[in-house]
Amino acid sequence: MEITDKLLREIESLARLPLQQDERESLRRDLSRILDHFESLAELDLQGIEPSSHVAQAEPFYRDDEPRPGIGSKIALSGAAEIEDGHFRVPPIIGEEEHA
Amino acid sequence: MPERPGLRESVERIRSGNFSSRELAENCLRRIEALNGKLNAFAHWDADAAKADIQDGPLAGAPYALKDNLCREGTLTTCASKILEGWISPYSGGAAARLDEAGARYLGKTNMDEFAMGSSTEYSVYGPTKNPWDSSRSAGGSSGGSAAAVASEMVPLALGTDTGGSIRQPAAFCGVVGIKPTYGRVSRSGLVAFASSLDQIGTLTRDVGDAALALESLMGQDPLDATSLGEAIPALQPELDRGVKGLKFGIPAEDQWMQLDAGPARVFQDSVDALREAGAEPVEIALPHAQHSVAAYYLIATAEASSNLARYDGLRFGPRREAETLEELLLANRSQGFGAEVKRRILLGTFALSAGYVEAYYQRAQKTRTLIRNDFQKAFETVDFMVIPTTPTAAFHLGEKSDDPLSMYLSDIYTLPASLAGLPAASVPCGLDAGLPLGTQIWAKTLDEAMLIRAAASLERAFPFGEIRRAALASLVEAS
Amino acid sequence: MSLPSGWEMVIGLEVHAQIHTRSKIFCACPTGFGGEANSRTCPVCLGMPGALPVLNRRVLEMTALLGLALGSRVALRSQLARKNYFYPDLPKGYQISQYDQPLCEGGAVEIPFEGGRRKIALTRIHIEEDAGKNIHLDGRSLVDLNRCGTALAEIVSEPDMRSPDEAREYLGRLRQLLLWLGISDGNMEEGSLRCDANVSVRHVGDTELGQRTELKNLNSFRAVAAALAFEAERQVAVLESGGKVEKVTLLWDAHEKRSRPLRGKEESKDYRYFPEPDLLPAGLSEGELSTLVAGLPASPLDRLDSLMENHDLDFYEADILTRERAMVDFFELLAEACGDSKAASRWMLGELARQLNDRVQNIEDLKLRPDSLAELIVLERDGKLSGLAAKSVLEKMLEEGGSANEWMERLDLAQLSDAGELANLVKSVLEANPKEVERYRGGRKKLFGFFVGEIMSATKGKADPKEVGRLLREGLDA
To answer: Is there a single domain that holds both residue B263 and residue B304?
Structure first.
């Protein structure tokens, strides 16, 4: 499958991973070659085959609803480059809440 | 010459008072300091590790190393990536916690391909790990640092992670034993995820017995990993001497995906012959869908990776770039923080999941995975275990494949089927090709680590590789 | 609502309800509102490298219970899925939610409709994790992840509603049930209940749906009704002027009373859902589901109907009494104990409701037991307590517990209703005020109040006013 420059840019945008112009062309060719090789899957008859999202054949287990204290805000924030008043600080968010 | 015994011997001698745990740790640290400049097996280590008091336990006093993608409270955990530069894990994952509880002594973290994405330990912010057998060659990957550290006797036990062969392939390249237990046997809590449905922690040791001892401590359900398995853990050490007499083992039927050069073909045939001489019966087994492993694996693994690596945005950990807006910051942190191979895989995985392509790529790959699992299920109705080469060739030269990702992916073909099916798998050093080690893999049924150890130990008895390694690496030994 | 004739609205709601749990959905961090920022966090809800989710069993139980109460099909094995998008309050870069295999499918929320009921069909109910909170300040934003990982149930309706009032009613009935079953506190102000809507318009009689828009930020019942009406009118205006409704997401501004399109980059949303590899398919066993079914209480509307049928209440009374389960339970015990449903209803909707409101108390927290209130009602009905005195007794019982008789005696509030005693009293008051009696009989009927006042002051207000009135009339009009 040929990855076009346009498609690659869309993928970069979805992944929030913009490439430099000099990276883009070689990566575009790599991905196209890799996907060409993966076309072999198209030959398989997969009618009625269930996907294997998990290989663990186990009964699921759950947690009891017992609260325990967390690690505390000091440790929570310890790896952050910028903090303010107990919060992670980030540049201004442009746009609005977009939670679904 | 300072002594650096293997894991079992270390534990026995410390327990009997014959050897001090601190002295052993000091010997290891001196070895790391002497050799790491040459091999680059360790990413970072704790120079004060020998000072810690060690409690009792089945591994009391024995030193160990973690791959740099395994969390241990208070230690640097970077996955060999710029994007996690300086990140100290505030918690211990299940594997590190179990080794610590068993009384083992943490020394440091080993080098790896960035986020475990690679088969050569070249894609690392720390630079490539060199193969102790030939420093112009790769130690394999992504657990290349762990394999090189064990081969060069820096440490008797190093943990690695295996997503598509990342323990077994470097073990084969470095002439040590690498074992990946059944998916779910060792907690993934604290394993920085690459591909969650495939990642599994395992061991790199000098011999099968050392692996058996370490795995007995490592395996078991963890309430913090919902995919960890609750089944009883078999005693592994009693399996070491049982032999394989009367067992049936599968060898892959001649197929187009199974093409070996003469050297590796001869070494593999020696392994088959040795098992036959030990009394096991070879049965040719067809795995008709194994040839699709590379495609299925790389689509699934990269899809999961594209999601797992979304959290690296530089906001809560890792270094941060300058930017005016949040969006710019996110893009700058990610595009400058990830290396080329990680970017390639994130983009491939994002594509595989994206609208319009998800059915043809991600979903087809997951269904193909089912076919591969079914192949195995059928195979294990006939045989007790299977053998297959670990790699198509011995260690390749550094730089040989790093510019050709597809060729790198294709070289994983022998390790991928077991990863996709979640099976326990081992690589045991079984011979030399032009002076470089080669490994033979053993695959066992899900949860049957006992059979895995039993067969691996039999193979090892036929090829006492420890002597060969010591002789070949004598120059390294002298260097310390 | 004032859509031009010939148009109708089609509305579907997506409601997010925080599930009432002690710990978060995938980690043991305590849930709660407010508090020091980022203090209720751990490696899991912070999205730290290597940390893994483990599902809280209670989230499954509560959501299955809701599904069972709404007649949904509850799956024995549902699938958690990752919804991938970037936002600073979503630390993993994906939200763990459900996609093609939700925990509950189908079912309906019933709303009262034209004297009967109408079913608003549900598409699904699924579980997911809440995000943290962003605080937008001048030149920067701050992120607090305390809320991140709080358990949510998302209840998605079919496009089954036809007016803002109906949508509001649906939301109200859903909220009532969430509280009824103890699944959520339903507090819209604190964000534990949130509502988004899909809305389109079409000509009456059309079977095809029009292009819909999505409305977000409907954070009160008033906002739901106002935003839907505003948006429907906007769409009709667009269509009537020959335009086309665009597929957009709109934010409701409650202050401006208008919606506006979501700002920011308009990119096609591609969430790249896939099964969450860290969590095995999740569900309860058939046995566990049967236990939940067996424990399901009668629904609010069934209880409402029963109040109307068995207690002869009107819809209005029965509706208020069934807002909360504790309330209707209290009512039924009270009605039985006092043998007078009307009086029980009058007391609960009147004085008791007022007192609860003043005290900001819930009925289940009361020291007052239904039989104590029944005793009070009987004392009043039998004329042993005046209305005023009964209110004083109620206040005491609410504050300190105890029985009505006890308080009546302690406060010396027993009403003077002995006919002989009162007759003597009336007689002496009339004798003591002959001029007034004469003027009254001469036509100054207003003086009646004067006599009542005299008797009340002589008895310190304890005389039974009804009896006093009767006796006075007898004495004066004789």
So the answer is: no
B135 in catalytic set: no
Interface of B with C (CB under 8 A): 69-71, 77, 79, 84, 87, 89-91, 93, 188-193, 195-197, 223-227, 303-304, 306-307, 309-311, 313, 315-317, 326-327, 330, 350, 353-355, 358, 362
**One domain for residues B346 and B383:** no
Does B149 lie in the same domain as B298? no
- Asked if the model's pLDDT at residue A57 lies above 90, the reply is no
Task: Name residues 279-308 of chain C within 8 A of B (Cβ).
Answer: 279-280
pLDDT grade for B477, boundaries at 50, 70 and 90 = low
In chain C, which residues fall in CATH 1.10.10.410? 419-477
Verify whether the Cβ–Cβ distance A17 to B334 is below 8 Å: yes
The pLDDT confidence band at residue C408, using thresholds 50, 70 and 90, is confident
Query: Which B positions 186-215 lie with beta carbon below 8 A of chain A?
Result: 197
Query: Domain for residue B2, yes or no?
Result: no
pLDDT at C2 over 80: no
B67 included as an active-site residue: yes
Q: Using one digit for the tens of pLDDT, what is the confidence trace for B141-195? A: 999 999 999 999 999 999 999 999 999 999 999 999 999 999 999 999 999 999 9
Q: Is some CB atom of chain B closer than 8 A to the CB atom of A50?
A: yes
Q: Which residue of C has its CA nearest to A85?
A: C37
Contact B351 A11 (CB under 8 A): yes
Among A12, A35, A56, select the one facing B227 at the smallest CB separation: A56
Q: Are C38 and A73 within 8 A, CB to CB?
A: yes
A84 or C379: which leads in pLDDT: A84
**Tell me, what CATH number does B86's domain have?**
3.90.1300.10
For residue range B395-423, list pLDDT tens digits in order: 999 999 888 899 889 889 999 999 999 99
Whether residue B167 is found in the same domain as residue B251: yes
**CB–CB contact A55 B351 (8 Å):** no
Confidence category of residue C467, pLDDT binned at 50, 70, 90 = confident
Please report which confidence band the pLDDT of residue C268 belongs to, taking 50, 70 and 90 as the band edges. Answer: low
Q: Is B445 a catalytic residue?
A: no
Identify the domain boundary among B366, B381, B414: B366
Of B19-23, B98-102, C176-180, C379-383, where does mean pLDDT reach its minimum?
C379-383
Per the structure, the complete domain to which residue B358 belongs is given by 291-366
Interface partners of C (3+ CB pairs, < 8 Å)?
A, B
Mean confidence (pLDDT) of chain B: 95
Cβ distance of A60 and C29 shorter than 8 Å: no
Do B273 and B298 reside in the same domain of the chain? no
Question: Residue B87: inside a domain, yes or no?
Answer: yes
pLDDT of B478:
54
Query: How many domains does the structure of chain B reveal?
Result: 2
Q: Give a three-class secondary structure readout of chain B.
A: CCCCCCHHHHHHHHHCCCCCHHHHHHHHHHHHHHHHHHHCCEEEECCCHHHCCCCCCCCCCCEEEEECCECCCCCECCCCCHHHCCCECCCCCHHHHHHHHCCCEEEEEECCCHHHCCCCCCCCCCCCCEECCEEEEECCCCCHHHHHHHHCCCCCEEEEEECCCCCHHHHHHHCCEEEECCCCCCCCCCECCCCCCCCEEEEEECCHHHHHHHHHHHCCCCCCCCCCCCCCCCCCHHHHHCCCCCCEEEEECCCCCCCCCHHHHHHHHHHHHHHHHCCCEEEEECCCCHHHHHHHHHHHHHHHHHHHHHHCCCCCCCCCCCCCCHHHHHHHHHHHHCCHHHHHHHHHHHHHHCCCCCHHHHHHHHHHHHHHHHHHHHHHHHCCEEEEECCCCCCCECCCCCCCHHHHHHCCCCCHHHHHHCCCEEEEEEEEECCEEEEEEEEECCCCHHHHHHHHHHHHHHCCHHHHHHHHCHHHHHHC
User: With contacts defined as CB-CB under 8 Å, which chain C residues touch B188?
Assistant: 50, 52
Identify the active-site residue in B138, B143, B146, B166.
B166
Domain C419-477, classified CATH 1.10.10.410, yes or no = yes
Assign C299 a pLDDT band (cuts: 50, 70, 90). Answer: very high
Task: Mark which of B366, B395, B419 sits at the end of a domain.
Answer: B366
Chain C positions touching B353 (Cβ under 8 A) are: 84, 272, 274
Where residue B1 falls among pLDDT bands split at 50, 70, 90? low
> B363 to chain A, minimum CA–CA distance in Å?
7
Domain co-membership, B278 together with B298: no
Point out the catalytic residue in the list B10, B67, B146, B180.
B67
